[in-house]
Every structure is written in structure tokens, then in C-alpha cells.
Amino acid sequence: MSWTNERLEPLLHTLVMQLVRLPEVQRDPPKVEKARVAMLGPLSFTIGDIPTGAAVYRWLVFELERPEMPNIAAWQSRLNDRKGFRTHVASRDFHLSG
């Protein structure tokens, strides 16, 4: 929650002010564009992906019956595209060695 308050809310505040609350003549399109672009980084990969991604990966390592979860599979695939995830999380040996 603090990450959201620190990283997302200031940008969202700018967007709300510039797109909704200020009269149109007072709006600043460059501020809107700067906030729009700045939102793309935090939304692509967040601190929440790291511990949750590792925990979900561990659950997926076990060959248990579970429903199809295409969104989870796609998210895990995106995490696996990251070198750090492959190096420090994705080895099955990290999760299955006794």
C-alpha cells in the first residue's frame, strides 16, 4: 500500500487534476503526457511481483490438480522472462530439494 501511495497516487493525482478537475483552459497537456509515461514503468513490474511471483511459482512447481489459469500462466511467463527470476526463483531445485 505504501508503494502505491508513493509511486502511483502522485501520478494519478496529476491525471485527475489535469483531465477532470481543472477547467480546460488551465490544463497542461505536457503534464498529462509526463504522468501517462511515468505510469507505464510502475505498472509493468512492481515490488509486489517479486514475493508473490515466487510464492505462486512454488505452488505451480507441485504437480497438483488445479483449474486452468491462463492469466496466472501468462504472468509467470512474463516473470520468467526476467533474468533475476530465472536465476533466483525459477530453478525447480530451489523448491524441491530437501
Spell out the blueprint of helices and strands.
Layout lengths: L1 H20 L7 H16 L4 H13 L8 H11 L2 H6 L3 H5 L2
Helix pairs in contact: 1-2
What does this structure look like?
- The chain has helices at residues 2-21, 29-44, 49-61, 70-80, 83-88, 92-96.
- The mean pLDDT is 88.
- It has 98 residues and is mainly alpha-helical.
- The chain folds into 2 domains: 2-44; 49-96.
Features:
mainly alpha, 98 residues, single chain
Entry summary:
By secondary structure, this protein is mostly helical. It has helices at residues 2-21, 29-44, 49-61, 70-80, 83-88, 92-96. The longest helix is centred in the N-terminal third of the chain and has 20 residues, at 2-21.
What is the percent of helical residues?
over 70%
Number of strands: 0
Structural class: mainly alpha
Shape: elongated
Quote the distance from N terminus to C terminus.
Answer: 35 Å
- Poorly predicted regions: none
| β-strand amount | under 5%
Query: What Rg is obtained from the alpha carbons, in whole angstroms?
Result: 19 Å
N-to-C series of helices and strands: HHHHHH
> For the report, how would you describe the main beta sheet?
none
Q: How many separate domains?
A: 2
The residue-averaged pLDDT reads 88
Counting H and I runs of at least 4 residues, what is the number of helices? Answer: 6
